[in-house]
Amino acid sequence: MTSPALPAPGSPRLHGLDALRAAAILLVFAYHYQVFVSGRPTFGWLSDIGWAGVDLFFVLSGYLIANQLMGGMRRGEQLSLPRFYGRRLLRTLPNFYVVLALYWLFPQVMGGREPPPLWRFLTFTQNIALVPGTAFSHAWSLCIEEQFYLMLPAVLLLGASLRQHRRALAWSLIGVLTLAAVVWRDHLWRLYGTLDPSAGYYPHLYYGSLARLDEFLPGVAVALLKHGHPRAWAALMDRPRRLLALGATAVLGMLTAMLHGYYIDGYGYGHAMSAWGYSALAWSFALLVLAAQAPRGVLARVEIPGAEPLARWSYALYLTHKPIAYALAKVLVGWGFVRASGWTAAAIAPACLLGGWLLYRVVERPFLDLRDRWIPSQFTGAARATTAGQRSPQHA
User: How far is CA 81 from the centre of its chain?
Assistant: First the structure.
C-alpha cells in the first residue's frame, strides 16, 4: 500500500480521507501485533479484523489514483504514461528499497527468516504464490498496488473520454471484473478453503493478484461517479448524513460478519466471506470514502487529532512497523517483559510510530520534493504553477 503525499501549500486536506487512512494503518498494526508479537487479541476485536485495513488501503488507492487521472482527462489534459510511472516510482520505490535493503543486510534483526528471491521484490511479483511467514511478507499488498498502477492508466487511455457510452462501458467493466473475481475466489475456496491455510488459502487466494485486484474497483467507481456523473455527485454530496449512515452500517455489518464467519475453528475459512466477502467489504469501504468527501459531512468537517500525521506517515509505517515490533519484542522478552502484556504494547507502539516517522522524514519526504521538481505533473502541457492546485490534496 502507498500513502498520500503532502498537500500543496494552501491546499486544504480532506479530513475524512485522512481519518480513513489513519484507521487503515491502525487496523493493520493491531492485526500484525497479534500475529507477530502477542499471540492474542491485544486490541480486542480490532486485532481479529485488523487485516481489513489493507482492504481499506486498496479502496483508497483506487479512488485517489483514479480521481487524479480522471480529473485531468476531464479537463482535457493529455496523460503521459512515462510521467505517470515516473511519479509513481519516485513515490513508492525509495521507502521500499531502503526497507528491502535492511532485510537483506540485517535478516536476523528484521525478522530472522529467509525472504523470497530478490527478483520477486524488484519485479513486484513477491505476492504470487507467497508462503506466509517469510521475511518482508507484508510487501505483498504493495506488489498488488503496483500491479494496479501498471494497468489503470492504460485502461483509461483506451477510453480517453467520459462521454455517456464510455461511462456505460466503464460501469459494465467494473461490474464484470468484480463478478469475475467473486467466481475466481469461489473456485479457489473450493480447492483450498478447508485445507492448511499456509499451503493453499494464503498463497493462492489471500495474496493472489487475481483474487484481490477487484478491491481497487470500488474506489475507481467513486472517482467515475465524481467525474462522469457530476449532477449525481452533487446530489449525493448534499446528503452527508445519509451517506455516512449508509457507509457506517455497511462497514459495521461486514466487520461483524467477518468476526463470526471469516475463519471457523476446526473448519477453515468461510465460503461466503472468502468468495464474495472481500468484494462486499471493499464496496462498503467505498461508501465511507464517498461520505468522507461531502463538504458538510462530519467526516469532512471534523479533524480527528493525530489522523493527519498518521495519514502522511502511513506508507512508511506500513513498511517498518512489523520488523520494529519483532526486534523490540525480542529485546523486551529478554528483559523479562511478557509478550502479551500491556507494558510491552506501550513500549512497541511508540517505537513503531517513531520508526515510520523517521523513514518518512529522511527518505520519503525528500524524494517527494524531488519528484515534484523533476516531474511536476503526469499530464503533458500542465504548467508547474498550476499542477499543485490540480492534484488531490491526499495523494500525488
Answer: 22
Written as nine digits, the cell of 129 is 504464490
Other beta carbons less than 10 A from residue 350's beta carbon: 10
pLDDT digit string (tens) for 327-348? 999 999 999 999 999 999 999 9
Backbone angles phi, psi at 3, to 5 degrees: -120, 155
- Cell numbers linked to 177: 471484473
Write phi, then psi, for 144 (nearest 5 degrees): -65, -40
The H-or-E segment that residue 98 falls in is: helix 81-105
Distance CA 16, CA 67 (A): 16
Q: CB neighbours of 116 closer than 8 A, spacing ≥ 6? A: 126, 130, 134
The per-residue b/e assignment along 21-49, b for 16 or more CB within 10 angstroms, e otherwise, is bbbbbbbbbbbbbbebbbeebbbeebbbb
All three cell numbers of 58, joined, read 486498496
How far apart (Å, rounded) are the C-alpha atoms in residues 288 and 247?
5
- Taking the CA atoms of residue 240, residue 243, residue 249 and residue 252 in that order, the dihedral angle to the nearest 10 degrees is -80
Tell me the mean pLDDT in the region 186-191.
96
**CA 135 to CA 171: how far, in whole Å?**
39
Helix 342-359 and helix 307-334: axis angle, to 10°? 130
Out of 100-104, 113-117, 182-186, 292-296, which region has the weakest mean confidence (pLDDT)? 113-117
pLDDT of residue 304: 95
Maximal C-alpha separation, the chain? 66
The predicted structure's pLDDT at residue 164:
55
Pairing of strands 268-269, 263-264: antiparallel
d(CA 146, CA 35): 25
The rounded distance, in Å, linking the Cα atoms of 180 and 188 is 12
* Assigned C-alpha cell, 270: 468461510
Distance CA 197, CA 246 (A): 34
Q: Count of residues for the chain? A: 396
Q: Identify the CA nearest to 57 among candidates 82, 26, 85.
A: 26
Q: What is the mean pLDDT of the chain?
A: 90
Interstrand relation of 268-269 and 78-79 (parallel, antiparallel or unpaired): unpaired
Q: Is 127 helix (H, G, I), strand (E, B) or coil?
A: coil
